[in-house]
Amino acid sequence: MPLSEVDNETTREMSMLLPISSKILKIYMESTTRAVERAISKEMPRNFGLMFDGWSCMTEHYVGLFGVYWNESVRKQPLLALAPLESGDQSAKSHRDFLEGVVGIYDQSVTSVRFLVRDNCNTNRATTTQLGVPLVGCASHRLNLATGRFLSLVHALLLHKNRLELARHTDLAPLRPNAKRWSSTYDMLERYARIREDIKRIDVVFTLLPTTAQHQRIEGVLADLRVLHSVSLKIQKDVITMASVRVLFDSLNERYPCTKDHPHASSKIVHSPAFKAALAKIQQQKSLTAAEAKSVRLLRLDDEVSVRPAKRAREAQDFATEVLPRAAKEATVSVGTLRTTGHYARYHRPATRASCKLIMTPQRASLLPVSFEMLAFLKVNRSYWDVNIVAGLCVQEGAQGD
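The structure corresponding to this sequence follows.
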């Protein structure tokens, strides 16, 4: 519903709450937003990382910026801002200016930023270079590029179908590939394998079915895509580490040499290879080279605190699950040596975009960017405020009004 819904008399009659105008509602939203900003500013350390992502809605391009740091042995990743770029362009300079303006709100400087987390596109690489910090690129982005390379070597698979006739034999219908998502090809072939026997019953398309040799090839491609799909799912888990990602990518390089251009540790798309290699080695408690040690020197903390990896639930065995136990034993990570969460390269991105779409509904299409930012900010940072804080702010606003 739009914010103006609180002004509707019918809505007020159906609510047990005291009536409030949309104007007063926005005042309280703004006060709560400022209170959350103060709470985040108070807990942010002098060294932290930034993770950002873009989201386009109609004519506006919003940039969401997250802080990444540890506070009292707990990883924090609050949303710092979600706003459109003021200049309207999406250049590296505009992104840098945006970052500088946002961290300034929290009494911080870009000189305190120790790393950026984003995908590996040229704009993000240029922004990182201008800031003089390492970039932890998105592992899923690199895997998608590698999978695209793999699929380019496989001839296009066309599935002919007759949906009306097929519906008499099965509830499943063939899927079409999505040009933007390789997983759609995997889903398409999985669906083909499941409904192939039902397709044989349809005389109209029986002659169009792949031959036995073609079917065997499809089964082979499907088996390879199952491997890539298992890796894709594994690297999106919250408990995944950069060391585990490195093991998975190295295993893919061995199994599919054609994909090594992107997952390889020294790939051209990797902005800060020494930094990423250092993080993986620290998680495996391996010795660092001089260049690797230099790349993470600013992440060192004085306090020695141990953070043990979370226990994993037992999962069905697949390629990724079988490969990871071959990695070096995940020993305790010494926080005195390093504490960073750079391996969480993309995992808030889908949730953030989904939250934005839930907020910016067609009924709120006319919502001002500042109101949209406050709604998204308060929704994502829900742990920083509660009813008691809002009640206290209402009392303060009422006292000031008197």
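Residues 32-137+345-401 form a domain with the Nucleotidyltransferase; domain 5 fold (CATH 3.30.420).
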